[in-house]
Each structure stands twice: as structure tokens, then as C-alpha cells.
Amino acid sequence: MTGEEAAVSSAIAAATLSLPVGLISLKRRLVSKSGLVASILVAIISGLAGLQSFLYVLMFYLSSSLLTRLKYSEKSKKGAAENPRGRDWRQVLGAGGVGTFFFAASFVSSLLGDLKFSAAFLVAALTSFAVSNADTWASEIGSLSKTPPRLIVKPWVKVPPGTSGGITMLGELASITGAALMSLTLWALSLHLILAVPPWAFISSSAYNVPAIIFLVGWLGEILDSIIGALFQAKYYCPRCKVVTDKKLHKCGATTVFYGGFRWLGNETTNIISTFTAA
């Protein structure tokens, strides 16, 4: 089977497998309708970079989705829970847009016969999803910490749970675990090159080098995301609760007023910047 045939077969397999997973996710309100469409597109494009690429993305999706629902009511009371209707296309793009772009670039480079660039783009895609997974784990588990978060750039300052740039020891341990999960997933997938495209041969031949790099950069990318969030992301002030938040509508129901940062820089944009930089 040629590389092109393997890519097409993998994309078809990705579409076939992602549809039932997506419909179940929609029913359980893990994604909205727009999030479902975006997720399936991500799955198909990742499939063009090999079946292993799709399975790698699937691991990210499943682990992050399960953690989103972990003690959801407790996180909701703290104002740190995701939208109860599920992730929409913007959130899917924020978490997986950069990786999807690099998967597409890897596929195109492979078609053009430039396997060196194809492999480099593949590693960049895998790295970006490791960053997203580490960031999701840090947010979803860290928000359950019994100790209040501290601002990463000013660790003596305590902030409300869910505040961008706020970190906890529990959250950082979760971030390391999330990055490690993607690294181990990559290592396991590299052992079985079924429907593999040529760039995956590079991953397989690198032994532990690429998984180790992805683990380290995945975790550091999450830290970068926190720094960007703390310094530049839009912040709002709730006049009723007298606290600073990332949300335009606070958990108390009050409309917040702009407080600082860049108005255009929301959580999804911060994710895109951090994953692209790390990749």
C-alpha cells in the first residue's frame, strides 16, 4: 500500500470511528452541534496523517472529555466548569486547531515527496495536542484543588478557581500526568504501524526521543499557556462579587465590566498561541 492509499484509508477509518463517538458525545452534552462537526473534521484531517495520528487525537479527546465531567457540579459552583451544553467549534478549534493545521501540512508535504518536512510537521502536530491535553488536565483537575490557585506570574497573589494564569500544585501534577499520557500513547502507537504513512516511520525509528520531547514540551506548553493567560488574556470585574474573572457573565449572574488585558484575547486564542509556540 502506498503512502497516499494509507492516508486515504486512515481518513476513512477516522471518519467511520469518529461519527459514533461524536454522536454519543453530543447526546451526553460533551460537545454542541457545531463542536461535533468541528471534531469530525479534526478526526478526518488527523486521519490523513495516519491511523496512529487519529488514535492519538482520540486519546486526547476521550481523556479531556471525561475530565470535563469529573465532579462537574463542584466545578460549576466555583465558576470553573465548561459550558453545560458542551464544547462548541471555537473551543474545538482552540484545543485542536493548531494540531490539525500541522497534520494537514504533514499530509501535503508527504504528497510532495518531502518526508523531512512531513515528519517535522507531524511531530509539531503531536506536540500541540500534548500541550492541549496537559492544559485541559491542569484546568479540570486543578479546579478541584482544596487550596486556592495562585497567579503564576505573582505566586503570592491568590485568584478564584478557573482564572487564567492561576495554578495549583494539584493542577501542575495533573498537567504533568496529561503530558505523560500523550507521550506514552505516542510510544505505544509507534510500535504498531498499521495503515501508517511514511512520517510515522520516523517516529518509530526514534525510539524514546520523540515521546520524551513531546512529554517535556507538552508540560512546558501548559506553563506558557498560564503565563500568557495571566499577562495578556482579557479580564473582567464583577461589581457584585468584587472579584476579577475571565468571564463576561459571572457565576452569580451579574454582567462584568472589562478590567484589563487584551479584549480580543480569550481562552481559545490563548490556547492557539501557546500550542503553536510550543509546536
Describe this structure in words.
The protein has helices at 3-27, 33-48, 51-68, 72-77, 89-111, 115-142, 169-189, 199-205, 209-231, 267-278; strands spanning 150-151, 154-158, 166-167, 235-238, 243-245, 257-260. The protein has one domain (3-229, 273-278). The mean pLDDT is 85. With 279 residues, the chain is mainly α. It starts with a helix and ends with a helix. The protein is built from ten helices and six strands; from the N terminus they run H-H-H-H-H-H-E-E-E-H-H-H-E-E-E-H. The longest helix is centred in the middle third of the chain and has 28 residues, at 115-142. Strands 2-1-3 form a three-stranded antiparallel sheet.
What is the radius of gyration?
19 Å
The coarse overall form would be: globular
Count of discrete structural domains: 1
- Biggest beta-sheet profile: 3 strands, antiparallel
**Structure classification:** mainly alpha
Strand order of the largest sheet: 2-1-3
